[in-house]
Amino acid sequence: MAASAERAFVGVGANLGDAQATVRAALQALAGLVHSQVVAHSSLYRSAPMQASGPDFVNAVAELRTRLSAPELLRRLHGMEAAFGRVRGVRNAPRTLDLDLLLYGNLVLESEALQLPHPRAHLRAFVLLPLAEIDAGLLLPGRGPIGDWLLQAQDQRVERIDAPGPV
């Protein structure tokens, strides 16, 4: 991967079907993303759905180095979701696969199509714990150290269920 590659973090989640297998398969699919390389991924975590009903989610985070622009990366993530059977339409509904672009370098962006950092990442332990596992010193652009946000989310139920495998 060229030196001009950007550091990006992708949240991976599922709560329909065999969610653990889906999250593992999605992490492998991310490794095949054009102009990108998975350099690390977190353990798998189980968490209750937030602002929704349905089965528990299985979540992880992948760190990429990518030469894709943020909008192009998001477009490809949506394509992967569709390939895994994700149907968009109902907000916070159970899903076969959810891929969220959490961070893209230090980019702070607010558009109709994309907000960076992800607008709720700093409030969700199921995002913060896997991010901190990959990089405990991570700074959330415009928000500060990840550790500060983890303290505020410590009352959320999140359980580590699997150690990270090879990248």
Order of helices and strands: EHEEEHEEEHEEHE
Low-confidence stretches: none
CATH class of the domain at 6-119 reads: Alpha Beta
Tally of separate helices: 4
Q: What percent strand?
A: 25-35%
The H-level CATH homologous superfamily of the domain at 6-119, spelled out, is: 7,8-Dihydro-6-hydroxymethylpterin-pyrophosphokinase HPPK
Counting helices, strands and paired strands, the structural category is: alpha+beta
CATH architecture of the domain at 6-119: 2-Layer Sandwich
Radius of gyration of CA atoms, rounded to a whole number: 15 Å
Describe, in plain words, how this protein is organized in 3D.
This protein is an alpha+beta fold and 167 residues long. The chain has a domain at 6-119: 7,8-Dihydro-6-hydroxymethylpterin-pyrophosphokinase HPPK (Alpha-Beta Plaits, 2-Layer Sandwich). It contains four helices and ten strands, in the order βαβββαβββαββαβ. The protein has helices at residues 19-31, 70-83, 125-134, 146-152; strands spanning 6-14, 36-41, 44-47, 57-66, 98-104, 109-110, 115-116, 139-140, 144-145, 158-162. Strands 1, 2, 3, 4, 5 and 10 form a six-stranded antiparallel β-sheet that branches. Helix 3 runs antiparallel to helix 4 (146-152). The chain is globular, with a radius of gyration of 15 Å. The model has no long low-confidence stretch (mean pLDDT 89).
List keywords for this structure.
about 170 residues, alpha+beta, Alpha-Beta Plaits, 4 helices, 10 strands, about 25% helix, globular
